[in-house]
Amino acid sequence: MKQRTWGGRFRKSQSKKFMEYSASINFDKRLAPFDLFQNAAYAKALHKAKLLKKSELDRLLGALNGIKTEFEKGRLKLRIEDEDIHMNIERRLSEKIGALAGKLHTGRSRNDQVATDARLYAREAINDILKLLENLQKAFVQNAEKNIDAFMPGCTHLQPAQPIRIAHWFLAYREMFARDAERFRETLKRTNVLPLGSGALAGTNFDIDRKYLAGLLGFDGITQNSLDAVSDRDFALDFCYAVSMFFSHLSRFSEEVVIFSSAEWGALILPDELCTGSSIMPQKKNPDLPELFRGKTGRVTGNLFNLLMIVKGLPLAYNKDLQEDKPPLFDSADQALAALPMAVELVKKIKFNKSVLKKRIGENFITAVDLADYLVQKGLPFREAHGIVGSLVRECEELSITFSDLTLGQLKKRSGLFDKKFLSYCDPALSTDRKKGVGSTSKSAILAQIKRIKRELK
Fold this sequence. Notes:
The protein is mainly alpha-helical. It contains 18 helices and 6 strands.
Protein backbone atom coordinates (compact mmCIF):
# COMPACT_ATOMS: atom_id res chain seq x y z
CA MET A 1 0.00 0.00 0.00
CA LYS A 2 1.23 3.48 -0.88
CA GLN A 3 2.90 5.36 1.98
CA ARG A 4 0.75 8.16 3.45
CA THR A 5 1.98 11.75 3.51
CA TRP A 6 2.06 11.41 7.28
CA GLY A 7 3.47 7.85 7.32
CA GLY A 8 7.19 8.49 7.78
CA ARG A 9 7.30 7.23 11.37
CA PHE A 10 5.43 3.98 10.62
CA ARG A 11 7.15 0.69 9.83
CA LYS A 12 3.98 -0.96 8.54
CA SER A 13 1.20 0.35 6.33
CA GLN A 14 -2.31 0.59 7.67
CA SER A 15 -4.65 -2.25 6.80
CA LYS A 16 -7.03 -1.74 3.90
CA LYS A 17 -10.07 -2.35 6.09
CA PHE A 18 -8.91 0.21 8.64
CA MET A 19 -8.25 2.83 5.97
CA GLU A 20 -11.68 2.23 4.40
CA TYR A 21 -13.35 2.47 7.79
CA SER A 22 -11.56 5.62 8.83
CA ALA A 23 -11.81 7.49 5.51
CA SER A 24 -14.25 10.40 5.32
CA ILE A 25 -14.05 11.18 1.61
CA ASN A 26 -17.48 9.65 0.96
CA PHE A 27 -19.14 12.52 2.81
CA ASP A 28 -16.58 15.31 3.15
CA LYS A 29 -16.15 15.53 -0.64
CA ARG A 30 -18.91 18.15 -0.36
CA LEU A 31 -16.31 20.46 1.14
CA ALA A 32 -14.27 20.52 -2.08
CA PRO A 33 -15.39 24.02 -3.23
CA PHE A 34 -14.68 25.44 0.21
CA ASP A 35 -11.32 23.67 0.49
CA LEU A 36 -10.24 25.01 -2.90
CA PHE A 37 -11.36 28.51 -1.92
CA GLN A 38 -9.40 28.22 1.33
CA ASN A 39 -6.31 26.85 -0.45
CA ALA A 40 -6.23 29.79 -2.85
CA ALA A 41 -6.47 32.28 0.02
CA TYR A 42 -3.82 30.43 2.03
CA ALA A 43 -1.46 30.46 -0.95
CA LYS A 44 -1.82 34.25 -1.06
CA ALA A 45 -1.10 34.45 2.67
CA LEU A 46 2.03 32.33 2.20
CA HIS A 47 3.16 34.69 -0.54
CA LYS A 48 2.48 37.68 1.73
CA ALA A 49 4.63 35.98 4.39
CA LYS A 50 7.41 35.59 1.76
CA LEU A 51 7.11 31.81 1.89
CA LEU A 52 6.08 31.61 -1.76
CA LYS A 53 7.52 33.40 -4.77
CA LYS A 54 5.12 35.23 -7.06
CA SER A 55 5.75 32.67 -9.81
CA GLU A 56 4.98 29.84 -7.34
CA LEU A 57 1.79 31.56 -6.23
CA ASP A 58 0.64 31.93 -9.83
CA ARG A 59 1.31 28.24 -10.56
CA LEU A 60 -0.57 27.18 -7.43
CA LEU A 61 -3.56 29.40 -8.16
CA GLY A 62 -3.71 28.20 -11.76
CA ALA A 63 -3.58 24.55 -10.70
CA LEU A 64 -6.23 25.09 -8.00
CA ASN A 65 -8.49 26.75 -10.53
CA GLY A 66 -8.00 23.77 -12.84
CA ILE A 67 -8.96 21.35 -10.04
CA LYS A 68 -12.04 23.47 -9.33
CA THR A 69 -13.11 23.06 -12.95
CA GLU A 70 -12.51 19.31 -12.76
CA PHE A 71 -14.66 19.04 -9.64
CA GLU A 72 -17.48 21.12 -11.11
CA LYS A 73 -17.53 18.96 -14.24
CA GLY A 74 -17.39 15.73 -12.22
CA ARG A 75 -13.97 14.78 -13.52
CA LEU A 76 -12.00 14.98 -10.27
CA LYS A 77 -11.11 11.44 -9.25
CA LEU A 78 -11.41 10.93 -5.51
CA ARG A 79 -9.70 8.02 -3.77
CA ILE A 80 -10.46 6.40 -0.42
CA GLU A 81 -6.75 5.82 0.17
CA ASP A 82 -6.33 9.61 0.32
CA GLU A 83 -8.68 9.58 3.33
CA ASP A 84 -10.41 12.95 2.99
CA ILE A 85 -11.09 15.81 0.59
CA HIS A 86 -8.05 17.77 1.79
CA MET A 87 -5.56 15.00 0.94
CA ASN A 88 -7.37 14.22 -2.33
CA ILE A 89 -6.96 17.81 -3.45
CA GLU A 90 -3.33 17.90 -2.27
CA ARG A 91 -2.63 14.68 -4.19
CA ARG A 92 -4.24 16.08 -7.35
CA LEU A 93 -2.33 19.32 -6.93
CA SER A 94 0.90 17.33 -6.68
CA GLU A 95 0.03 15.47 -9.88
CA LYS A 96 -0.39 18.79 -11.67
CA ILE A 97 2.57 20.84 -10.38
CA GLY A 98 4.84 18.40 -8.55
CA ALA A 99 6.74 19.21 -5.34
CA LEU A 100 5.47 22.81 -5.27
CA ALA A 101 2.12 21.42 -4.05
CA GLY A 102 3.80 20.41 -0.79
CA LYS A 103 4.58 24.04 0.03
CA LEU A 104 0.87 24.83 0.38
CA HIS A 105 0.69 22.93 3.67
CA THR A 106 3.40 25.10 5.25
CA GLY A 107 2.26 26.20 8.70
CA ARG A 108 -1.11 24.54 8.30
CA SER A 109 -2.72 21.40 9.72
CA ARG A 110 -5.71 19.47 8.55
CA ASN A 111 -7.09 20.38 11.99
CA ASP A 112 -7.43 24.10 11.25
CA GLN A 113 -8.09 23.34 7.59
CA VAL A 114 -11.22 21.23 8.20
CA ALA A 115 -12.48 23.60 10.90
CA THR A 116 -12.28 26.42 8.34
CA ASP A 117 -13.98 24.42 5.58
CA ALA A 118 -16.83 23.45 7.90
CA ARG A 119 -17.38 27.09 8.88
CA LEU A 120 -17.38 28.13 5.22
CA TYR A 121 -19.96 25.42 4.48
CA ALA A 122 -22.16 26.40 7.42
CA ARG A 123 -21.93 30.09 6.48
CA GLU A 124 -23.17 29.42 2.97
CA ALA A 125 -25.98 27.19 4.23
CA ILE A 126 -27.11 29.81 6.74
CA ASN A 127 -27.23 32.53 4.09
CA ASP A 128 -29.28 30.28 1.80
CA ILE A 129 -31.64 29.37 4.65
CA LEU A 130 -32.10 33.03 5.61
CA LYS A 131 -33.22 33.91 2.07
CA LEU A 132 -35.76 31.08 2.10
CA LEU A 133 -36.98 32.00 5.59
CA GLU A 134 -37.68 35.49 4.32
CA ASN A 135 -39.82 34.01 1.52
CA LEU A 136 -41.68 31.91 4.07
CA GLN A 137 -42.41 34.92 6.27
CA LYS A 138 -43.69 36.85 3.25
CA ALA A 139 -46.03 33.98 2.38
CA PHE A 140 -47.58 34.11 5.86
CA VAL A 141 -48.01 37.89 5.60
CA GLN A 142 -49.62 37.60 2.16
CA ASN A 143 -52.14 35.10 3.46
CA ALA A 144 -52.79 37.28 6.50
CA GLU A 145 -53.63 40.21 4.24
CA LYS A 146 -56.12 38.07 2.33
CA ASN A 147 -57.86 36.97 5.55
CA ILE A 148 -58.04 40.11 7.68
CA ASP A 149 -61.85 40.12 7.71
CA ALA A 150 -62.34 36.37 8.18
CA PHE A 151 -62.70 34.65 11.55
CA MET A 152 -61.86 31.33 13.18
CA PRO A 153 -61.86 29.82 16.68
CA GLY A 154 -58.61 30.36 18.55
CA CYS A 155 -57.89 27.28 20.66
CA THR A 156 -56.29 26.32 23.93
CA HIS A 157 -55.93 22.61 24.75
CA LEU A 158 -57.20 22.13 21.16
CA GLN A 159 -60.61 23.32 22.36
CA PRO A 160 -62.30 26.41 20.84
CA ALA A 161 -61.56 29.27 23.22
CA GLN A 162 -62.01 32.76 21.72
CA PRO A 163 -62.71 34.20 18.27
CA ILE A 164 -59.68 35.44 16.32
CA ARG A 165 -59.14 36.72 12.82
CA ILE A 166 -57.63 34.15 10.46
CA ALA A 167 -54.93 36.72 9.75
CA HIS A 168 -53.92 36.51 13.41
CA TRP A 169 -53.28 32.77 13.03
CA PHE A 170 -51.03 33.30 10.00
CA LEU A 171 -49.11 36.08 11.73
CA ALA A 172 -48.56 33.92 14.83
CA TYR A 173 -46.54 31.47 12.73
CA ARG A 174 -44.72 34.31 11.03
CA GLU A 175 -43.43 35.33 14.48
CA MET A 176 -42.06 31.82 15.05
CA PHE A 177 -40.17 31.81 11.77
CA ALA A 178 -38.94 35.36 12.39
CA ARG A 179 -37.33 34.08 15.60
CA ASP A 180 -35.78 31.26 13.57
CA ALA A 181 -34.28 33.81 11.19
CA GLU A 182 -32.90 35.73 14.17
CA ARG A 183 -31.41 32.51 15.54
CA PHE A 184 -29.67 31.80 12.24
CA ARG A 185 -28.31 35.35 12.10
CA GLU A 186 -26.88 34.93 15.60
CA THR A 187 -25.41 31.57 14.57
CA LEU A 188 -23.85 33.25 11.54
CA LYS A 189 -22.03 35.72 13.80
CA ARG A 190 -20.44 32.92 15.80
CA THR A 191 -19.74 30.85 12.68
CA ASN A 192 -18.02 33.58 10.71
CA VAL A 193 -14.80 33.55 12.75
CA LEU A 194 -11.61 32.20 11.16
CA PRO A 195 -9.66 29.31 12.81
CA LEU A 196 -7.12 29.02 9.98
CA GLY A 197 -3.62 29.83 11.17
CA SER A 198 -4.08 27.87 14.41
CA GLY A 199 -2.05 24.95 13.06
CA ALA A 200 -2.56 21.58 14.70
CA LEU A 201 -3.28 23.15 18.11
CA ALA A 202 -0.46 25.52 19.12
CA GLY A 203 -0.31 28.01 16.28
CA THR A 204 2.32 28.18 13.55
CA ASN A 205 6.05 28.89 13.38
CA PHE A 206 5.54 31.13 10.35
CA ASP A 207 4.34 34.72 10.23
CA ILE A 208 0.95 34.06 8.62
CA ASP A 209 -1.25 37.17 8.61
CA ARG A 210 -4.51 35.73 9.95
CA LYS A 211 -6.44 38.99 9.61
CA TYR A 212 -5.41 39.16 5.96
CA LEU A 213 -6.64 35.58 5.55
CA ALA A 214 -9.93 36.44 7.24
CA GLY A 215 -10.45 39.28 4.77
CA LEU A 216 -9.73 37.05 1.77
CA LEU A 217 -12.16 34.40 3.00
CA GLY A 218 -14.89 36.82 4.09
CA PHE A 219 -14.66 36.15 7.83
CA ASP A 220 -15.57 38.90 10.30
CA GLY A 221 -12.79 38.03 12.74
CA ILE A 222 -10.26 35.44 13.86
CA THR A 223 -10.28 32.94 16.71
CA GLN A 224 -8.28 33.95 19.80
CA ASN A 225 -7.00 30.61 21.09
CA SER A 226 -5.48 28.01 18.79
CA LEU A 227 -6.17 25.11 21.18
CA ASP A 228 -9.88 25.96 21.23
CA ALA A 229 -10.06 26.92 17.55
CA VAL A 230 -9.25 23.49 16.12
CA SER A 231 -11.58 21.63 18.49
CA ASP A 232 -14.51 24.09 18.64
CA ARG A 233 -17.72 22.82 17.02
CA ASP A 234 -20.08 25.18 18.81
CA PHE A 235 -20.96 26.76 15.47
CA ALA A 236 -22.11 23.36 14.15
CA LEU A 237 -24.14 22.76 17.31
CA ASP A 238 -25.67 26.22 17.02
CA PHE A 239 -26.54 25.47 13.41
CA CYS A 240 -28.11 22.09 14.19
CA TYR A 241 -30.05 23.67 17.05
CA ALA A 242 -31.33 26.47 14.81
CA VAL A 243 -32.44 23.89 12.23
CA SER A 244 -34.16 21.77 14.88
CA MET A 245 -36.01 24.83 16.20
CA PHE A 246 -37.09 25.75 12.67
CA PHE A 247 -38.43 22.23 12.17
CA SER A 248 -40.13 22.32 15.56
CA HIS A 249 -42.07 25.39 14.44
CA LEU A 250 -42.74 23.85 11.04
CA SER A 251 -44.01 20.73 12.80
CA ARG A 252 -46.40 22.77 14.96
CA PHE A 253 -47.75 24.46 11.86
CA SER A 254 -48.02 21.09 10.11
CA GLU A 255 -49.93 19.58 13.01
CA GLU A 256 -52.57 22.29 12.83
CA VAL A 257 -52.79 21.97 9.06
CA VAL A 258 -53.39 18.23 9.45
CA ILE A 259 -56.01 18.77 12.16
CA PHE A 260 -57.84 21.62 10.44
CA SER A 261 -57.93 19.77 7.09
CA SER A 262 -59.32 16.59 8.69
CA ALA A 263 -62.92 15.52 8.03
CA GLU A 264 -63.75 16.22 11.68
CA TRP A 265 -62.78 19.89 11.36
CA GLY A 266 -63.17 20.50 7.64
CA ALA A 267 -61.81 23.99 8.18
CA LEU A 268 -58.84 23.98 5.83
CA ILE A 269 -58.49 22.95 2.19
CA LEU A 270 -55.17 21.46 1.08
CA PRO A 271 -54.02 21.84 -2.54
CA ASP A 272 -54.29 18.64 -4.57
CA GLU A 273 -50.76 19.04 -5.89
CA LEU A 274 -49.30 18.72 -2.37
CA CYS A 275 -51.35 15.68 -1.31
CA THR A 276 -51.54 12.00 -2.17
CA GLY A 277 -54.31 9.44 -2.39
CA SER A 278 -54.68 5.92 -1.07
CA SER A 279 -53.76 2.78 -2.98
CA ILE A 280 -56.94 1.11 -1.72
CA MET A 281 -59.41 3.84 -0.62
CA PRO A 282 -60.48 5.99 -3.58
CA GLN A 283 -61.91 8.80 -1.42
CA LYS A 284 -58.71 9.60 0.47
CA LYS A 285 -56.77 12.86 0.24
CA ASN A 286 -53.76 12.53 2.50
CA PRO A 287 -51.80 15.49 3.94
CA ASP A 288 -48.43 13.92 3.15
CA LEU A 289 -46.35 17.11 3.02
CA PRO A 290 -47.15 18.39 6.55
CA GLU A 291 -46.83 14.83 7.83
CA LEU A 292 -43.36 14.61 6.28
CA PHE A 293 -42.42 17.89 7.93
CA ARG A 294 -43.48 16.44 11.29
CA GLY A 295 -41.52 13.25 10.68
CA LYS A 296 -38.34 15.01 9.58
CA THR A 297 -38.39 17.06 12.77
CA GLY A 298 -37.30 13.93 14.62
CA ARG A 299 -34.49 13.43 12.12
CA VAL A 300 -32.95 16.89 12.50
CA THR A 301 -33.39 16.86 16.28
CA GLY A 302 -31.51 13.56 16.21
CA ASN A 303 -28.71 15.30 14.31
CA LEU A 304 -28.41 17.83 17.13
CA PHE A 305 -28.20 15.14 19.79
CA ASN A 306 -25.79 13.14 17.64
CA LEU A 307 -23.39 16.08 17.56
CA LEU A 308 -23.88 16.85 21.26
CA MET A 309 -22.85 13.28 22.10
CA ILE A 310 -19.78 13.54 19.84
CA VAL A 311 -18.37 16.61 21.57
CA LYS A 312 -19.55 16.10 25.16
CA GLY A 313 -16.46 14.30 26.48
CA LEU A 314 -13.64 15.26 24.13
CA PRO A 315 -10.32 16.33 25.62
CA LEU A 316 -8.47 19.19 23.93
CA ALA A 317 -7.60 19.56 21.14
CA TYR A 318 -8.55 17.74 17.93
CA ASN A 319 -9.74 14.12 18.12
CA LYS A 320 -10.81 11.78 15.32
CA ASP A 321 -14.32 11.79 16.79
CA LEU A 322 -14.74 15.21 15.19
CA GLN A 323 -14.67 13.61 11.76
CA GLU A 324 -18.25 12.60 12.55
CA ASP A 325 -19.40 16.22 12.94
CA LYS A 326 -20.06 16.60 9.22
CA PRO A 327 -22.88 14.06 8.56
CA PRO A 328 -25.27 15.73 11.08
CA LEU A 329 -24.21 19.19 9.89
CA PHE A 330 -24.70 18.31 6.22
CA ASP A 331 -27.98 16.47 6.78
CA SER A 332 -29.50 19.28 8.86
CA ALA A 333 -28.62 21.76 6.13
CA ASP A 334 -30.03 19.47 3.43
CA GLN A 335 -33.29 18.96 5.29
CA ALA A 336 -33.81 22.68 5.94
CA LEU A 337 -32.97 23.68 2.36
CA ALA A 338 -35.30 21.01 0.96
CA ALA A 339 -38.19 21.76 3.33
CA LEU A 340 -38.27 25.55 3.08
CA PRO A 341 -39.36 25.91 -0.58
CA MET A 342 -42.06 23.28 -0.01
CA ALA A 343 -43.23 25.08 3.12
CA VAL A 344 -43.51 28.33 1.15
CA GLU A 345 -45.62 26.57 -1.49
CA LEU A 346 -47.86 25.01 1.15
CA VAL A 347 -48.48 28.31 2.94
CA LYS A 348 -49.28 30.06 -0.34
CA LYS A 349 -51.76 27.42 -1.47
CA ILE A 350 -53.72 26.43 1.64
CA LYS A 351 -57.18 27.95 1.98
CA PHE A 352 -59.55 28.11 4.91
CA ASN A 353 -63.15 26.96 4.49
CA LYS A 354 -64.72 30.21 5.67
CA SER A 355 -68.30 28.92 5.64
CA VAL A 356 -67.35 26.10 8.01
CA LEU A 357 -65.42 28.48 10.26
CA LYS A 358 -68.29 30.95 10.37
CA LYS A 359 -70.41 28.16 11.82
CA ARG A 360 -67.65 27.01 14.20
CA ILE A 361 -67.17 30.42 15.82
CA GLY A 362 -70.86 30.46 16.71
CA GLU A 363 -70.44 27.25 18.74
CA ASN A 364 -68.92 26.29 22.09
CA PHE A 365 -69.82 29.56 23.87
CA ILE A 366 -66.76 31.14 22.35
CA THR A 367 -67.68 34.64 23.55
CA ALA A 368 -67.85 33.66 27.22
CA VAL A 369 -64.89 35.89 28.10
CA ASP A 370 -66.58 38.82 26.38
CA LEU A 371 -69.71 38.33 28.50
CA ALA A 372 -67.65 38.16 31.68
CA ASP A 373 -65.76 41.33 30.71
CA TYR A 374 -69.10 43.00 29.92
CA LEU A 375 -70.09 42.48 33.58
CA VAL A 376 -66.65 43.66 34.74
CA GLN A 377 -67.15 46.90 32.83
CA LYS A 378 -70.30 47.38 34.88
CA GLY A 379 -68.33 47.13 38.10
CA LEU A 380 -68.45 43.43 38.98
CA PRO A 381 -65.19 41.75 40.12
CA PHE A 382 -63.90 39.42 37.42
CA ARG A 383 -64.07 36.27 39.54
CA GLU A 384 -67.77 36.88 40.24
CA ALA A 385 -68.39 37.60 36.57
CA HIS A 386 -66.54 34.40 35.66
CA GLY A 387 -68.80 32.37 37.95
CA ILE A 388 -72.00 33.95 36.58
CA VAL A 389 -71.06 33.31 32.96
CA GLY A 390 -70.00 29.75 33.85
CA SER A 391 -73.47 29.13 35.27
CA LEU A 392 -75.00 30.53 32.07
CA VAL A 393 -72.92 28.11 30.03
CA ARG A 394 -74.24 25.24 32.13
CA GLU A 395 -77.84 26.43 31.71
CA CYS A 396 -77.44 26.78 27.94
CA GLU A 397 -75.97 23.28 27.68
CA GLU A 398 -78.92 21.87 29.63
CA LEU A 399 -81.41 23.67 27.35
CA SER A 400 -79.39 23.03 24.16
CA ILE A 401 -79.33 26.74 23.32
CA THR A 402 -76.66 29.44 22.82
CA PHE A 403 -76.02 32.71 24.68
CA SER A 404 -78.02 34.72 22.15
CA ASP A 405 -81.08 32.49 22.81
CA LEU A 406 -81.21 33.56 26.45
CA THR A 407 -83.91 36.04 27.42
CA LEU A 408 -83.15 39.16 29.39
CA GLY A 409 -85.24 37.69 32.21
CA GLN A 410 -83.08 34.58 32.37
CA LEU A 411 -79.98 36.74 32.46
CA LYS A 412 -81.23 39.03 35.21
CA LYS A 413 -81.82 36.02 37.44
CA ARG A 414 -78.03 35.66 37.38
CA SER A 415 -77.22 39.36 37.68
CA GLY A 416 -79.19 42.60 37.62
CA LEU A 417 -76.33 44.20 35.68
CA PHE A 418 -77.42 42.57 32.41
CA ASP A 419 -79.22 44.75 29.85
CA LYS A 420 -80.06 44.53 26.14
CA LYS A 421 -76.48 45.37 25.15
CA PHE A 422 -75.44 41.87 26.14
CA LEU A 423 -76.46 40.64 22.66
CA SER A 424 -73.60 42.52 21.02
CA TYR A 425 -71.22 40.71 23.38
CA CYS A 426 -72.52 37.40 22.07
CA ASP A 427 -71.43 38.19 18.50
CA PRO A 428 -68.07 36.48 17.71
CA ALA A 429 -67.39 38.82 14.79
CA LEU A 430 -67.53 41.82 17.14
CA SER A 431 -65.37 40.13 19.76
CA THR A 432 -62.04 40.56 17.96
CA ASP A 433 -62.20 44.34 17.72
CA ARG A 434 -62.77 44.68 21.46
CA LYS A 435 -59.26 43.41 22.01
CA LYS A 436 -56.82 46.13 23.03
CA GLY A 437 -53.08 46.55 22.78
CA VAL A 438 -50.20 45.69 20.51
CA GLY A 439 -50.28 42.16 19.12
CA SER A 440 -53.98 41.50 19.66
CA THR A 441 -56.44 40.08 17.14
CA SER A 442 -58.28 43.38 16.49
CA LYS A 443 -58.22 44.62 12.91
CA SER A 444 -56.25 47.74 13.83
CA ALA A 445 -53.65 45.69 15.71
CA ILE A 446 -53.29 43.22 12.83
CA LEU A 447 -52.85 46.02 10.28
CA ALA A 448 -50.17 47.47 12.55
CA GLN A 449 -48.48 44.05 12.78
CA ILE A 450 -48.43 43.71 9.00
CA LYS A 451 -46.98 47.19 8.58
CA ARG A 452 -44.25 46.43 11.13
CA ILE A 453 -43.41 43.07 9.57
CA LYS A 454 -43.12 44.52 6.07
CA ARG A 455 -40.76 47.16 7.44
CA GLU A 456 -38.68 44.45 9.16
CA LEU A 457 -38.52 42.28 6.03
CA LYS A 458 -37.19 45.18 4.00
